[in-house]
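Work Package 3 (structural annotation) set out to generate three-dimensional models for the target panel prioritized at the project kickoff. During this period the team completed the workflow that converts sequence records into discrete structure tokens, so that structures can be stored uniformly alongside our sequence database. As a representative example, we reproduce one entry of 85 residues exactly as it appears in the project archive.
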Amino acid sequence: MKKIVLSATVILGLTACGGFTEEQGKAADAMCECMAADAHGDFDINWFECDTELKATYDVEVFEEGSWVEALEEKCPDVADKLED
């Protein structure tokens, strides 16, 4: 019985800690769409404009957690790659 409880606790703990939230996924999708539009023809300017727009729409917590980058890496890896450079 103790092994079952311990195993369930470990599984729940790992599941809760991993991945990005649904809200972060939505924000990442919006960021990908905005960046794909390439309104200014310059990555840095596009990032600034898109980031400003998203921060006006979504809660600050969406962007503060480390899993925000994880959401970007999954949704639009080309944008995430440019952030690492």
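DSSP finds six helices and no strands in the chain.
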